[in-house]
Amino acid sequence: MSGNIANYSVSMILNVATGRPGASIDEQSAQQHYTLPDGFSVQIFANDLPKARFLRFTQAGDLLVSRPHAGDIVLLEPDRDGDGYSDARRTVISELDRPQGMDFDGEWLYIAERERIGRIRFDHNAGATVDHYEDVVTGLTGDGNHWSKTIRFGPDGMLYLAQGSTCNICVESDPRRATIMRFRADGSDGEIFATGLRNSVGFDWSPVDGALYATDNGRDMLGDNFPPCELNRVELGNFYGWPYFNGNNVPDKDMGPDPLAQQRLPVAPVHGFRAHNAPLGISFVDGSDWPGDFDLVALVALHGSWNRSEPDGYEVVSLHFSDNGIEERTFLGGFNQDGNILGRPVDVIQGPDGAIYISDDYAGAIYRVSTDTPAQRPNALDALNTAADTTTPDWVAQSDVQALARQGAALYQQHACATCHEQGENPLPLVEVSYDAIERALVTPQAPMPLLPLSETERRALAAFIVSGQ
């Protein structure tokens, strides 16, 4: 199970293979390495938030942060004392099943979990939930590669839900996967709004014409530079190509003709990101008071590649809309230092103070970008020690490890693990992994790794096989 890790750091490989976070970023490193257009500055608003994903502001100006792998939603209070940091944090709800997307509808906080959407009353002034959590939409599927769910309320008052595919390339058994759906606020009248969207993690509406735009992650295993990731203008009833077409409606060689070609035509993206850049969160922002040309702009978080020979992405870009099309520019860059990855942006949102807030699930940080002069800070935070756990769990000594490893070899083959870890142009090698790291990754996998239906014994068997290097 060896492979070429190309120019990626080992910590980056471990992040994708096992979900292990990278080292936290301190203020000094952020100021030294991160880049912005002239007139902007970046500061760390909050640190030590492992796997921070999606963001939403309350009416009182508190920032909610979802953490799917921790199963909770954390509230960050604004910076009222002027030191640049969030003044305090607390967990507002926990024991959820991989919550990611969030949005408000008045006093209701809606949360998208792996297999359902729920809601709970929220006191904006107190920054706290009220009463009990209740189901809104149930019976969703959460298996496969892209189990996360993103939700937003649209200008029409409807609740929109994006859920990705179970696979890299396949025909879905659940027609709701790889789509955007919409529902009434109570979860009724659900319908598929658009199809053929492999993994549209982020979406937002243009303030100019109300059009819905969604990012989409292109498929893997076709080389470094194809297919492009996408920005789609999503309209009711449209088909956006996956799994039969990639990019500008190029037929997929692994799928053959679309059997529904007589009933639908694929709609091409309005913008192509570089291949494997993994665009996630998107927000249209008000840049009217910013220096430079930011009249009609959306910011997009590029999570970064995991399967190309040269790492790419790892930045926040600005998309500038004009009559001539869409121009992409780097907004917040510097996360990739010659293959040493400092962070992986996930979501981007404009706060009530006009500043931009960006989540980073690799460094476990929330960044604040503004046109303000950076606040004077106390001593920089020490980076967290994220060395691999080398402790051997008790079950290893109590087991027939060789027999487990043989069982694990069969499971490795059964679930086609070699497809990503050994095969293709840029396989993701399993390097420097411990028993515990493998077990954790199998229980709470990080995309693109699928959620496999494994018992505890089967997870340990796979761990024994991988650690043994057989």
Automatic annotation (TrEMBL):
Pfam families cross-referenced by the UniProt entry: Cytochrome_CBB3, TrAA12
Listed InterPro entries: 6-blade_b-propeller_TolB-like (IPR011042), Beta-prop_PDH (IPR054539), Cyt_c-like_dom (IPR009056), Cyt_c-like_dom_sf (IPR036909), Quinoprot_gluc/sorb_DH_b-prop (IPR011041)
Gene Ontology terms for molecular function: electron transfer activity; heme binding; metal ion binding
Annotated ranges, domain Cytochrome c: 403-470
Alphabetical list of PROSITE patterns matching this protein: CYTC (PS51007)
Keywords, sorted A to Z: Heme, Iron, Metal-binding
Top-level taxon: Bacteria
PANTHER family, per the entry: LARGE, MULTIFUNCTIONAL SECRETED PROTEIN, LARGE, MULTIFUNCTIONAL SECRETED PROTEIN-RELATED
Name of the molecule in the record: Oxidoreductase
